[in-house]
């Protein structure tokens, strides 16, 4: 049995959009962010939900007017009105902003270092 690393999830609310596709085929949903980790996010399922679970999504999390975290994510679970996503790709600026957010919400610096080490080794 393989051990799965659980990342600390931070309850966090910020203006967030989820999108899928490109051009005329692009679908975008304003969503309610419930929590966030270094490896993914949990949102309240928007209605109507027309997302294709076989394709990737882009999550844009607006921390302020100037600061945004952008992740390419994959849907991992859809249950009880919530959608869970795992991060497939994140740029360096976004990971720096997300790291700072996690750092501010974790009381333990050692825990942050364990989170970052686990993220690098996934």
UniProtKB/TrEMBL annotation:
It holds the Pfam family PilZ. Keywords: c-di-GMP, Nucleotide-binding. Residues 3-103 form the PilZ domain. Gene3D superfamilies: predicted glycosyltransferase like domains. The keyword Signal does not apply. Binds the second messenger bis-(3'-5') cyclic dimeric guanosine monophosphate (c-di-GMP). Can bind two c-di-GMP molecules per monomer. May play a role in bacterial second-messenger regulated processes. Binding to c-di-GMP induces a conformational change of the C- and N-termini resulting in the exposure of a highly negative surface on one side of the protein to a possible effector protein. This is Cyclic diguanosine monophosphate-binding protein. It comes from Pseudomonas tehranensis.
């Amino acid at each position: 049995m393989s051990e799965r690393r659980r990342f600390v999830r931070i309850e966090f609310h910020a203006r967030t959009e989820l999108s899928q596709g490109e051009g005329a085929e692009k679908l975008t949903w304003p969503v309610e962010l419930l929590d966030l980790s270094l490896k993914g996010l949990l949102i309240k399922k928007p209605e109507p939900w027309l997302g294709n679970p076989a394709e990737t999504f882009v999550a844009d999390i607006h921390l302020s007017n100037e600061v945004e975290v952008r992740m390419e994510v994959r849907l991992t679970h859809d249950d009880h009105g919530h959608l869970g996503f795992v991060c497939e790709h994140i740029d360096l600026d976004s990971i720096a902003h997300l790291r700072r957010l996690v750092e501010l919400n974790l009381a333990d610096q050692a825990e942050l270092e364990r989170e970052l080490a686990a993220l690098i080794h996934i």
